[in-house]
Amino acid sequence: MNVLAKIRVEHLSFSYGSRRVLHDVNAVFMEGTVTAVIGPSGRGKSSFLLAINRLWEEIPEARVQGHVWIRLDDREQLVSDPSFPVTELRRRVALVFQTPNPLPMSIYKNVAFPLNVMGIQNRDVVSEAVQKALCRAYLWNEVKHRLHEDARCLSGGQQQRLCIARALAAEPDVLLLDEPTSSLDVRAARVIEELLTSLKDQCTLVVVSHELDQVRRVADQVYEVVDGTLQQIVPSSALPGDDQRLSGSF
Ligand SMILES: Nc1ncnc2c1ncn2[C@@H]1O[C@H](COP(=O)(O)OP(=O)(O)OP(=O)(O)O)[C@@H](O)[C@H]1O
Known about the structure:
The chain is built from 9 helices and 10 strands. It has helices at about 45-50, 85-90, 105-115, 125-135, 140-145, 155-170, 185-200, 210-220, 240-245, and strands at about 5-15, 20-30, 35-40, 60-70, 75-80, 95, 175-180, 205-210, 220-225, 230-235. The structure holds adenosine-5'-triphosphate (ATP). Adenosine-5'-triphosphate binds near residues 21, 44 and 61.
């Protein structure tokens, strides 16, 4: 099988004001794979995700230099190209945050939200897309009889799967996840891990994680943030020891 590069990062630097967080990052993320980004706290992992879908532009003091290319519709798109609408970028490169953030509305409306933003109004189309996204996020069976309840009534693990369903509703090419299981118990985290692995045939995933065992279970490729840049770890069995994580360096 010929695996293509889905995301290419070239000479990327990221600063908040005068504080440089990332410098000269070069990395490639292959299509249909899960890549984990690991590293100690405060080293720029979340900032790296913000650079990919240009969410950094919402932070007044943030500055990014360098290039991020995403392969869309069989051609490489420079994400910073002024003619490429940021709304389209964020539809195709969705971000799921560390803490589940359901909108204050029903389960159904949460998942339908990106479709409404896209201007899709046909009820049957929306309803079908909502069900499909909830199924893909392993949540349909748990919520199919309570779709009109407030999403904030769901458990933490269900809320995170709802947020993944919301991201999937717009059928993104890339799913960025920032420590998606860090606020969940072990059982809920395992469900999300299985879910991530199952999504590989539909999109390319980049997951920031502190859990090295989790990284071993889900990641096809691993990058570690070292001295402000990304270094690939090959093979993933060469990950830093878990004792490092327990001692707080991860
Ligand atoms: N909005 C901001 N303004 C200024 N500095 C920021 C801002 N957001 C993050 N930083 C700083 O940038 C550095 C990198 O932060 P970032 O959140 O990217 O790290 P991280 O590796 O994801 O950390 P963690 O694992 O703890 O989530 C940190 O020193 C952080 O304090």
